[in-house]
Amino acid sequence: MALKPCWQCQRLVSTEAPQCLHCKVPLPARNTQLCRECKNDVPAAATTCPHCGIPMATATATFPLPGRPKTIAYAALGILSAVLVLTMLIIMSRDQDDRRDDPKQLYLRQEFASRLQRAYDAAGFKYRVELLGEDKSALSIQSPEMNEALVNQMIAEQGGPLAARVSGLKWISFSNNTTSWNYNVDERRLDAPHQRK
Question: Could you state, in order of their start, the residue ranges of all structural domains in the chain?
Answer without folding.
Answer: 8-65, 67-97, 103-195
